[in-house]
Design goal:
- The complex is a heterodimer of chains A (445) and B (482).
- By secondary structure, chain A is an alpha/beta fold.
- A seven-stranded mixed sheet of chain A has the order 2-8-7-6-5-3-4, sandwiched between helices.
- In chain A, helix 3 packs antiparallel against helix 11, helix 6 crosses helix 7 and helix 11 crosses helix 13.
- With 482 residues, chain B is α/β, with parallel strands linked by helices.
- In chain B, the strands form three sheets. A seven-stranded mixed sheet of chain B has the order 1-7-6-5-4-2-3, with helices on both faces. A three-stranded antiparallel sheet of chain B has the order 10-12-11, covered by helices on one side.
- In chain B, a hairpin with a 2-residue loop joins strand 8 and strand 9.
- The chains are: A alpha/beta (445), B alpha/beta (482).
- The interface between A and B is large, with 209 and 196 residues.
Chain lengths: 445, 482
């Protein structure tokens, strides 16, 4: 049998040692009627070779967006990943290790998490980061719960320009806690925000660059948010953007969250991802998720361990800050290796190339008749295009030319003629021009 | 201990290469200067070799499955097949974007559709969502479904009953959906105390969360009666599937009275634990609850697979940005395909035999409170004899095991057994490994008598000696300053 070491003979020896004749004697506690008699449901077992053949045939039907000229983003981005990243995360020392509860044999995991936390703090300007969460959406939702806990208030104000998928996750996470979500359009008028922030507001949640790619005026938003002393400013950021855009500490964010996938993790059809959550020291005890701290061992040598565990479910049970029991560790390892390899200059280069190439493309497309940018606000590496025919039709037409044109915003209940386009450093000028030319050839446009 | 990566910084060193920017656009023209970051980011500047050496050095300080035995109860640390790692790294898996057209991801959708189907079949449920990315998120999702069911029927219910042996995530998840926890004791056989359950149940009871086999490794033989008591007040039965490894091909939980269950693909279905994730925590439900599952589900029409939003209105919504941990789900798919029906059953059988073998061999030397029951895939021993006689605690025994090349069992859990050591060998371990572990445990039992000080000082041979957790809290240092 695959993956089982013991032979039938050894199995029988063990049954004898246990003191039973046959396996079924061990199932005495299970009511007979519940025992499945016939072999269930799956096909016959397959060898490594057979499953590989089947698998390759199956996935031949997929188009890898990493292989074609893709402009898909919307929170998940195809940034370059140095080969060394995968070599590290494939090491079974990291890959098959358990959660580092036994610190003495988990220093490898604990130390890289400590380094990860330190790097997230550097990017965000915050004082403490947790060890990682499931994804940007749940990290944002947990940040709202954290703010409500800390402020003992139950209203969360959310910018309408937040990723619509995040809004759905937030809805599910907060409704059981009786938190009122107030969505406000800040793209056109910040006065709208002023009107809803009051002494019941636990937090204001703003994404920048927002879902449409645009940069929000975080300094002005912060002024309004903190006009209420206890209201926390939660910002959702693209970690790559932080290499060149304002660090959240510059605009006095209280909690910084985001999707970390862009840091060294492939798109993987949307998972696994990882979220990050960083904040000020004064909020540490309200934080959800694992945290690693430096300490010493019995010999006084520096080492690491999971700390502040009294916040967590395995100690605090129903009074924990969250039920979370995972930090998507391996994804945060990829991010740690990625940030180590890229360093400050590499990250800056990635952000700069992404931004300049996105702006080059936007300018070229806007020169085409009938195509306009949906907004004249500043953007980073992603922008929304107003298309002359439904975006979906353009996507279908261009797919035939091995171009994945972007995301039709119709699926999020928005105008069908809006196309969200993301550009990373991986694109060459030729690929960008190829996209522009393909748009030129779209009929009826 | 190794230096941090920050201490290896050497200005202008580079660990990457990128093509030169071939567009003429200047960054200054992209957005106004007030959006630009003022302070430089302090990340290390190191070479690729520096990075490789650093992380390899760190890796040497970890215990991991290929290095040695991992008898962690309720964690199912089985061997993870390597073919999965090769296959999921294919660009036609890793390079897929979640928002590309369904037409361009037919292979991926077929894999997920089949996985939904296989998980439903082996557990006896009507359908499965693959969206929750962890066991705890699965619990949360399952409880949301329970709440949606009651809301749809206008049931005014607000309490979830749990046995005192429940995982910590259970009460924490209950709290997150806005229900209250009612805890009931276990009986002398380590099972749900039916009388206590009856007393706790009333019209407020929204449901019952149970792990079966429970965290003592014992199959709840009164499951039918328990289900009846809960169903009689229109409560729902939730199965925490952490211990599903014991039931594969033997019992279908959906046929034993459970209405909702979560699976831990990173336990039962051999996807790597990753040092703390990414995992995957799908949810299976009975037929009338399908309409509450998160959207989208994978469906098939006219030979084409697609993301189905049909139940948008009744669904609890979304718990993940996209479709859950796809690459983890693909590994579970491959694992199940390779096992087939017969392999599946063999997994559970050998897991159960391995656990009973260990329990039998250890019960004369360590207290095994429930040794009169055959266990399923795991059992709970206790260090109480040693503690009473020699002052050596379970923590000391656990640390000494580290010295001998084994990971420690899950300790001090379940909370109802004092000095608990929860031991789960899994089916992938050989008899020799189990014998070596038994010998190590017997040596430790002898050491407790002859040289208790050694145990109290353990571990002695690990990369670091016993770690000062108290200091880590008292003098909080969570970020490297340089």
């Amino acid at each position: 049998m695959p993956f089982i070491s013991n032979t039938d003979k050894e199995r029988q020896e063990m049954l004898t040692a246990i003191g039973v004749e046959k396996f079924s004697d061990l199932l005495k506690n299970i009511p007979q009627k519940f025992i499945v008699n016939k072999n269930c449901c799956l096909e016959n077992q397959k060898s490594e070779l057979e499953i590989s053949h089947k698998f390759y045939k199956l996935i031949a039907k997929n188009i890898s967006s990493a292989r074609v000229n893709s402009f898909l983003g919307g929170g998940i981005y195809d940034h370059f990943i140095p080969a060394a990243v995968d070599h590290i995360i494939q090491r079974p020392e990291f890959h098959t290790a358990y959660t580092p509860y036994q610190a003495e044999v988990s220093q490898g995991t604990l130390q890289y998490i400590y380094e990860f936390q330190s790097m997230i703090c550097e990017l965000t300007g915050m004082e403490i980061s947790n060890a990682g969460m499931y994804d940007g959406a749940s990290a944002t939702a947990e940040a709202i719960l954290m703010a409500a806990r800390k402020s003992k208030r139950d209203k969360a104000v959310i910018a309408a320009s937040l990723n619509p998928l995040y809004k759905k996750v937030i809805q599910v996470y907060t409704e059981g806690m009786d938190i009122e979500l107030v969505e406000v359009d800040i793209e056109n008028d910040l006065q709208n925000l002023k009107k809803v922030v009051d002494n019941q507001t636990a937090c204001v949640v703003v994404q920048s660059p927002n879902f449409f790619g645009n940069l929000e005026d975080m300094f002005a938003i912060e002024d309004i948010t903190h006009s209420e002393k206890k209201t926390l400013f939660i910002t959702v950021v693209d970690p790559i953007s932080l290499a060149i855009l304002n660090s959240p500490t510059e605009y006095n964010a209280d909690i910084v969250v985001g999707e970390g996938q862009a840091l060294g993790n492939p798109t993987n059809y949307g998972g696994p991802l990882f979220g990050f959550l960083a904040t000020r020291s004064k909020l540490v005890r309200s934080m959800p998720g694992r945290i690693v701290g430096a300490t010493v061992d019995a010999n006084g040598n520096r080492c690491y361990s999971l700390t502040l565990q009294a916040r967590e479910q395995h100690i605090r049970r129903a009074k924990a800050t969250s039920n979370i029991c995972s930090n998507d560790a391996l994804c945060t390892l990829a991010a740690t290796v990625y940030m180590s390899l890229m360093g400050p200059k590499g990250l800056n280069e990635v952000a700069t190339q992404s931004a300049t190439k996105a702006h080059y493309l936007a300018t070229k497309i806007a020169e085409l008749p009938n195509y306009n940018l949906a907004s004249n606000k500043p953007f980073f590496k992603e922008f929304t295009l107003k298309t002359p025919i439904p975006a979906k039709e353009i996507i279908n037409l261009l797919t035939k030319k091995d171009i994945l044109a972007g995301i039709s915003l119709e699926q999020f209940g928005m105008d069908k003629n809006l196309l969200l386009i993301a550009v990373t450093e991986k694109k060459s000028k030729a690929e960008l021009d190829n996209f522009v030319n393909a748009l030129k050839e779209v009929p009826n446009a | 201990m190794p230096k941090t990566i920050f201490e290896k910084h050497s200005p202008y060193r580079k660990g990457y290469t990128l093509p030169a920017n071939d567009v003429e656009t200047k960054l200054e023209s992209c957005f106004p200067n007030n959006f630009r970051r003022k302070e430089k980011i302090k990340l290390p500047e190191v070479s690729e070799l520096d990075v490789m050496r650093h992380f390899i050095e760190l890796s040497h300080n970890n215990h991991f499955i290929e290095k040695g035995f991992y008898p962690l109860g309720s964690c199912t640390m089985k061997y993870n097949p390597k073919i999965n790692e090769t296959l999921v790294r294919n660009e036609k898996i890793s390079g897929l974007h979640p928002l590309q057209n369904d037409d361009t991801a037919q292979g991926a959708l077929e894999i997920l559709y089949e996985l939904q189907h296989m998980l439903s079949e082996i557990s006896g449920f009507a359908n499965v969502t693959l969206q929750p990315v962890a066991g705890a998120q699965g619990e949360f999702t399952g409880l949301k479904i329970m709440k949606a069911y009651h809301n749809a029927k206008n049931n005014k219910k607000n309490k979830i009953i749990l046995p005192d042996s429940a995982h910590g995530t259970n009460p924490a998840s209950v709290m997150m959906v806005g229900y209250e926890v009612v805890e009931i004791p276990s009986n002398k056989r380590g099972m749900v105390d039916i009388e206590a359950l009856r007393k706790a149940v009333n019209n407020d009871t929204a449901g019952f969360m149970l792990t079966n086999p429970n965290t003592l490794g014992i199959f709840e033989s009164q499951i039918e009666e328990i289900s009846k008591i809960i169903h009689d007040v229109d409560g729902l039965m939730y199965l925490d599937g952490a211990n599903f490894n014991a039931l594969l091909g033997i019992v279908k939980p959906g046929k034993t009275g459970f209405d909702i269950m979560h699976y831990n693909l990173h336990k039962t279905f051999a996807t790597p634990h990753g040092g703390g994730g990414p995992g995957s925590g799908p949810i299976g439900v009975r037929k009338d609850l399908i309409k509450f599952l998160p959207v989208p589900m994978v469906n098939k029409k006219n030979g084409k697979y697609y993301w189905d939003y049909t139940n948008q209105e009744t669904s609890i919504g979304r718990v993940h940005s996209f479709y859950g941990n796809f690459a983890v789900n693909v590994r579970a798919y491959l694992y199940l395909k390779m096992l087939g029906s017969q392999g599946l059953k063999r997994v559970a059988e050998n897991a159960i035999i391995n656990a009973n073998y260990l329990m039998k061999k250890l019960q004369d030397h360590f207290l095994v409170p429930f040794k009169n029951e055959y266990c399923m895939h795991e059992f709970v021993a206790s260090g109480k004899w040693q503690k009473d006689k020699t002052g050596v605690k379970t923590l000391d025994i656990a640390k000494r095991l580290l010295d001998k090349g084994f990971h420690a069992p899950t300790i001090y859990f379940p909370l109802i057994v004092s000095e608990a050591m929860m031991i789960e060998p899994t089916e992938t371990e050989s008899k020799e490994t189990l014998d070596e572990f038994i010998q190590a445990m017997l040596d430790i039992a002898a050491e407790a008598e002859n040289s208790p000080e050694t145990l109290k000082a353990a571990p002695l041979n690990t990369p670091v000696r016993r770690v000062d957790d108290t200091r880590a809290v008292r003098e909080l240092d969570v970020k490297f300053e340089w």
